[in-house]
């Protein structure tokens, strides 16, 4: 029993930490919770008054309307008589009945708004928490984001954020049940001190005996959290790999895998449901037995008045589900707290890896040059440097090709420029300004990045093109499509710019995707264009069109173009060729010495 009491003692600490977490991160305001608790308290007061007025009603009937006997029958009846006399209301069956009805009706109205506001608060916090979780993770450093699995990201932003917010609903429910407990205890105390003492001992003992369920609830809830993360990871990864799975005839194996994970979730959830059902199974029969034994004791041994017995019966019947609700909500708290602790860890970890995007010097479009000066970089946990003593200068408006074998350090070299990663040694200068002193937001606004696998959102062509320039007009969009040699095929689509591209743009060909991405680049105001092997996976016809679009980037827009290249046709057009091998520049050549 001592261990059970210790578990109860931990709950206030958990609840306090949870509240401080929400408040510190501006996910909730005190006035929002205070308003819900006020409505809950008002509901309970009205309920207690409604029940209290029923006791004098029964007493008045029992004493055949005799006011003096009515007043002397109980302390509660005397209080009711004094209130009625104060307001000049005659004490009769009709007036007491109308008062009881008015209180009950008003209680239901207030309770209606209480339930709505309690649920609204939960969803408000859920929304804020979900958005802030996305913001925290997406604003973190590259290494941290790479360690987050897509399933964890999705699960944290949805399920775990929801469970963390749902704790607030438990606060409201616990507050209301606590107020009901206090209100009805006061009614019992006014009626009989001995009876109240007996009930309190019984209910407290029963709660302690049943509190062992909390430990098991916490255990199964933590297991459930892990199972949910596994399933979300599975869904994200397998759906992304759909084509590979069906082409390798592995679908049956994946279905079996999904069946196994869901079986674990199902079995664990059933255990939780059984624990919840066990509360009702044990609590109500024991409470009913206590009520029946006590009533028999009152009548046959103690010869207590009917009014007192009625008060006891009504209050006890109301306190039984209240006590059960307390135990149930404590179990819910224990079930939700693993989610809160996980979300808090995500917030702390992402916060310690956060990047301040706005602080620093605001950059203008590139006018002079980009310079890498004695730049070295190594990935954590690796002995060898990915880049070592890199020195080169790119003049504004140049067309630069970066070549080298796989693993030579080409992508690492590129990732340093927009500060996706930071050099261990040396510095990179943008028009003579060390980019470490620059605003990351302004630096990246001057850089357009076209990846090897073109990324398009699951939306329309026009939505994708306006992603970097929301105010772009349709005329500007069609001009950009012409420059990217995408005008003809987009115009041929029945829905034109409103054509839905599907997940990752998979409803159109690879070459078409790449040209739409280039059109999006044309619309941006970036003065530096980074292209990561944009034609490596394309056929010759698509390659020629992409090459023509790159020529347009260079000649018509005047941007500085940096391209990771493999094809000779691309390298041959370059002003500068940087050849990397094992993290070092082995040759830095102009186009006249290109391979």
Could you tell me the CATH topology label of the largest domain.
ABC transporter transmembrane region fold
Q: Please tally the helical runs, counting DSSP H or I stretches of 4 or more residues.
A: 20
User: How much is the average pLDDT?
Assistant: 79
| Oligomer class | single chain
Just give the CATH class of the largest domain: Mainly Alpha
What is the total tally of β strands? 10
The computed structural class is: alpha/beta
The CA-CA distance between the termini, in Å, is 81 Å
Task: Describe the overall structure.
The chain is an alpha/beta fold and 595 residues long. The chain has 2 domains: 8-352, ABC transporter type 1, transmembrane domain (ABC transporter transmembrane region fold, Up-down Bundle); 369-593, Rossmann fold, CATH 3.40.50.300. The protein contains 20 helices and 10 strands. The protein has a 6-stranded mixed β-sheet, sandwiched between helices. Strands 2-1-4-5 form a 4-stranded antiparallel β-sheet, covered by helices on one side. Strand 9 and strand 10 (584-590) form a beta hairpin. Helix 8 packs parallel to helix 12 (306-352).
